[in-house]
Specification:
This protein is mostly helical. Helices cover 41% and strands 8% of the residues. It has two domains: 3-160, no CATH class; 179-311, no CATH class. It starts with a helix and ends with a helix. The protein binds zinc ion.
């Protein structure tokens, strides 16, 4: 198939139509997934011949949904499965599996062995000129309201830049840790959050480094935060060694100084807690080894942790 065929297919995706449920009368799930894949492929963050709902795809999906006029993020497993009816999305099912609509990412992974796009389409997405036409075809296919189209264009630019910022952040680990940084130009300002979040969550496997909680919704959203040790507002520091993956509770306790980490990467619990019932949130983690990133070059900096112990932690 040629570019013209795919432009038509992208404008005429088989989607659920419902004027009351969808802002433009057509379900946005498939176009949002395709936009996410195009953005990730441009930045070498996904292989279009072996598509997996990994953290990069789930985070980009969630970032794009944020600007649509829906209260909830759509479940990512729906378009991952249903795009097979559109003629360019090839799903291989696992042996002895009868194809059926999954009800979770977990079930999707348990029945599908691989997803790949047509080779012709992958080549077209690789090319700047045809890629932009494909994006426009999705934006103008009647899946989004006018306001959503404008906001999606902005979000696509911001996410695209977040990958450039991410490259700069990854390079920082080659140098000695510095307390503060100046790499954040105004160009990168709105793009920094998704970049920092992706590198921290990836290296901690989306797991709280204190309690080990990992929780991902069927929309693909992780409950885990990418927390700064030295506050970003004071030190401008998105170095991964100034980051820790923390659940909402432990992020709050860390920022309030009720929890810290010692120089052997053991959890420190403050004596300044008045009441804790049950003792399963805080006290039980005292002196436990924290859960570390997958590579030692990404371990939290003891310079940053020392600052946290001295300035924030309530002993
Ligand atoms: Zn936790």
């Amino acid at each position: 198939m040629n570019l013209g065929d795919y432009l038509t297919k992208f404008k005429e995706l088989h989607v659920d139509k419902n004027k009351n449920r969808y802002s433009a009368g057509k379900a946005p799930h498939k176009p949002i997934l395709l936009l996410s894949l195009i953005l990730l492929s441009k930045n070498n963050k996904i292989d279009l011949s072996d598509i997996k709902p990994n953290i990069y795809l789930r985070e980009t999906w969630a970032e794009l949904w944020k600007i649509l006029s829906y209260n909830r993020t759509g479940p990512i497993y729906l378009p991952l499965y249903h795009l097979r009816s559109d003629g360019f999305w090839k799903i291989e099912f696992k042996k002895h599996v009868h194809p059926h609509q999954p009800r979770s990412i977990h079930e999707f992974n348990s029945i599908v062995s691989s997803i790949t796009l047509d080779d012709d389409l992958i080549d077209l997405i690789d090319d700047d000129n045809s890629r932009n036409k494909l994006i426009n075809s999705l934006l103008n296919g009647g899946y989004f309201s006018e306001i959503e189209i404008n906001n999606l264009k902005k979000a696509i630019r911001i996410i695209d830049r977040s990958f450039d910022y991410e490259k700069k952040l990854i390079l920082l680990i080659n140098d000695e840790f510095k307390m503060s940084h100046n790499i954040l130009t105004s160009e990168f300002k709105p793009s920094r959050d998704p970049a920092f979040r992706r590198i921290v969550l990836t290296s901690y496997n989306e797991t709280c480094s204190v309690c080990g909680v990992k929780l991902i919704t069927s929309s693909g959203i992780s409950i885990i935060d990418a927390a700064h040790i030295l506050p970003f507002s004071q030190y401008n520091n998105d170095d991964i060694r100034n980051g820790m993956a923390l659940c909402k509770t432990h992020h709050w306790l860390f920022d309030k100084g009720l929890i810290s980490v010692d120089d052997h990467y053991r959890v420190l619990v403050s004596g300044a807690v008045e009441e804790e019932t049950p003792e399963s949130v805080l006290t039980k983690f005292n002196k436990n080894d924290m859960i570390m990133p997958n590579e030692s070059s990404k371990y939290p900096s003891q310079v940053a942790l020392d600052w946290h112990r001295e300035r924030i932690f309530q002993r």
